[in-house]
Amino acid sequence: MTTPGPHGAGSLEGRCFLSVLDFEPADLEHSLTLSATLKRDRPLGKEAPTSAALQGTYVALLFEKPSLRTRSTFEIAIRELGGNFIVPSADVALGKRESLADVGRCLERWVAGAVVRTYEQSRLTDLALATTSFRVINALSNEEHPCQALADCLTLKERWGDPRGRTVAFVGDGNNVATSFAQAAVMLGIHVRVASPDGCDLPPGIDGDIARVARYGAELTRFRDPVAAVRGADAVYTDVWTSMGREAEVAERRRLFSPYQVNDALMAHAGTDACFLHCLPAHRGEEVTDSVLDSPASAVFDQAENRLHTQKALLVMLYED
Ligand code: CP
């Protein structure tokens, strides 16, 4: 993995996964190959070659926001790799009683790493930088959701085989999911179009990184018009219009995003055999209709399943000596 990562000075030494950008494209390719192997081997149970990969290893799960998929799949992944986890309560674990740095320095004496869902990305960086050997994984921050992107990429590779030259249209908020997906997809040679209302674009600061990590000529393009973005695309991706932590804005955002609903009419502009992606949870009838979410084109439960396999691969990669 990258040394240094985007977090400065080489101090994380490739031990953390705070961002898709902590991977080089070759790391992403390797993680997806390993994920497919782990998925194939899962029925072997204790006979799987990785069933003791985390033997004797404790991992802390620190979640400041709700989670079904991420938390469940990390718990299962750690267990299936032979490891153990602890779940300190959020009120004592994330800097409310003492600094994040001191939380990290204590945890590091007991456990090998932490899976953290929190607010600002800087909180993850602070935790990682305060420690020396601690493996920190971003389980979602306000800015990025890199573990989701791993599952998205595996799902697309399963559907398409070689994804180079394909196009995915992300329709909706240029949020953490869109950011991490765009960073990962361009590494695989996938063109990414993002259609968002004014004021809800992908952060402009990601363009330099996208240009640096893109392979095989993949490009990121921003749109206002969802139809233009979806036209001829091989996949259409959306997420909720109001991300966790922005609930006070829900009425205004419903108004703003209503032209961006993924429905049958919008999907009709996509390419033949285009698939539909959503990280879940979905707000049915808002960003996506039942008819799309429950259609044969929908890959959303494959994405959910693949959270497990891709996070197992990530844990193996981070904890291997
Ligand atoms: N997609 C996702 O991160 O789901 P959870 O919020 O349930 O973990």
Describe this structure in words.
40% of the residues lie in helices and 12% in strands. It has 13 helices and 9 strands. The chain has 321 residues and is an alpha/beta fold. The strands form 2 sheets. Strands 7-6-5-8-9 form a 5-stranded parallel sheet. The chain binds phosphoric acid mono(formamide)ester. Residues 67-70, 140, 148, 279-280 line the site of phosphoric acid mono(formamide)ester.
Number of E-state strands: 9
Q: What order do the SSEs take from the amino end to the carboxyl end, as H and E? A: HEHEHHEHEHEHEHEHEHHEHH
CATH first level of the largest domain: Alpha Beta
Low-confidence stretches: 2-11
Task: Give a brief outline of the structure.
The chain has 13 helices and 9 strands. With 321 residues, the chain is α/β, with parallel strands linked by helices. The protein folds into 2 domains: 10-145 and 307-319, 3-Layer(aba) Sandwich (Rossmann fold); 148-304, Aspartate/ornithine carbamoyltransferase (Rossmann fold, 3-Layer(aba) Sandwich), CATH 3.40.50.
